[in-house]
Amino acid sequence: MPVFMLAILSAMAAPAIAQDAPRASVDGATFAKRLSDRMMAADADGDGRISAAEWAAGGRAGAAANPARTRRFAMLDANKDGFLDRAEITATVAARLRRVDGNGDGRIDATERAAARPARTPAAATAD
Ligand SMILES: [Ca+2]
Ligand SMILES: [Ca+2]
Prior knowledge:
This protein has a single domain, classed as Orthogonal Bundle (Recoverin, domain 1), CATH 1.10.238. Helices cover about 60% and strands about 10% of the residues. It is built from 8 helices and 4 strands, in the order H-H-E-H-E-H-H-E-H-E-H-H. It has helices at about 1-15, 15-20, 30-40, 50-60, 65-75, 85-100, 110-115, 120-125, and strands at about 25, 50, 85, 105-110. A two-stranded antiparallel sheet has the order 1-4. The protein has a two-stranded antiparallel ribbon with strand order 2-3. The radius of gyration is 17 Å and the shape is globular. The structure holds calcium ion (2 copies).
């Protein structure tokens, strides 16, 4: 049955996601690097800055018309030049780190990460 085969294939692809889930606690620098790498991954043309189009396409497939993402881009683009450059991303990451690090000890523990993580994978969130 083809649908069943698809389910098996999806299950086999799952470890790619699990890889990111269960780590005890990370220092602020690691957290910041991961987040900024993730943001810079949207830089499709590799010019070191993220255009509005790259931002729309880079986050999630099919998210091009997501108004929330468009609004977020406008918020992050501090100098309103239509691009997120390194400085803007660094500032964004630093602000997020401050927000996520609830007890201000410079490390992000599992509880803080779980609280900050958007609830897109409920199973992983409860496993944390
Ligand atoms: Ca770019
Ligand atoms: Ca900018």
